[in-house]
Amino acid sequence: MVLAYKGTEKLWNSSPEQIETLENVIEGKLEILRKEFISIRSYRSLRHDSDLLFWVSSHKPEKFYEFKAGMNLLFRGMAETSFSMISIYEHSPYLKGKTTLEDTLHKKPSPYFVAYPMSKTVDWYLLDYEERKRILSEHIGMAVSHPENRDIRSYTTYSYGLGDQEFVVLYEVDDLSAWSHVTEKLREATARKWIIREWPILVGTLNEPFRIMP
Question: Looking at domain 2-88, does it have CATH number 3.30.70.1030?
């Protein structure tokens, strides 16, 4: 789950001491919750419509509600949820490999995070599997061979029947300009013909330990 929060006037009108107290309470709660989840990461959002982002991974979907409800209680009206996406981490049918989510998420977090929702046209799913595989092989090859792609970690997750998007592609990156250059190059891929939605793209900077103010 990717969960976005927007600070309210109550938060921004709070004293520095009140904000620091809230930061410490939430960081303490996150330390406890991290033992119950595969991973919990927090970010400061760079979008206009959110201020904080959480990327939460669990084997049990009901844990996402527990997390959301817990954060809502801790914020106590100082921040409200502005957007969320839920998706399932599974291995792509077009790629080989058996790396688990735990394997990748237990690596050191990158400085920046991008949550990229996406959907495709009906015509895409009517293509023959081998044709889809060929088209995506081109796309993947362009990404992997790009000279600025070396420090980008990507996670393709699936939202069929669970959200307004069909996929949520999550990225951990060391350099936002490099990420933007790779994304620009992929606009030339044939697979772009079947993309119909890819918003809102959430972008954040790593926020560990949890802080609202710099």
Answer: yes
Contact 212, 11 (CB under 8 A): yes
- Residues listed for the chain: 214
Beta bridge partners of 170: 115, 155
Look at the pTM and tell me if it is higher than 0.90: yes
Instruction: Give domain limits for the chain.
Output: 2-88, 102-203
Mean pLDDT of the chain: 95
Q: What is the DSSP string of the chain?
A: -EEEEEE-HHHHTS-HHHHHHHHHHHHHHHHHHTTTSSEEEEEEE-STT-SEEEEEE-S-THHHHHHHHHHHHHHTTSEEEEEEE--EE---TTS-----HHHHHTSPPPSEEEEEEEEE-HHHHHS-HHHHHHHHHHHHHHHHHSTT-TT-EEEEEE-TTTSSSSEEEEEEES-HHHHHHHHHHHTTSGGGGGEEE--PPEEEEE--S--S--
Q: Do 178 and 212 meet the contact criterion of CB atoms below 8 Å apart?
A: no
CB-based contacts of 92-97 (< 8 A; 24+ apart in sequence): 92/156, 93/129, 94/132, 94/133, 94/136, 94/137, 94/140, 95/140
Digit-coded pLDDT (tens) for 17-37: 999 999 999 999 999 999 999
CATH of domain 102-203: 3.30.70.1030
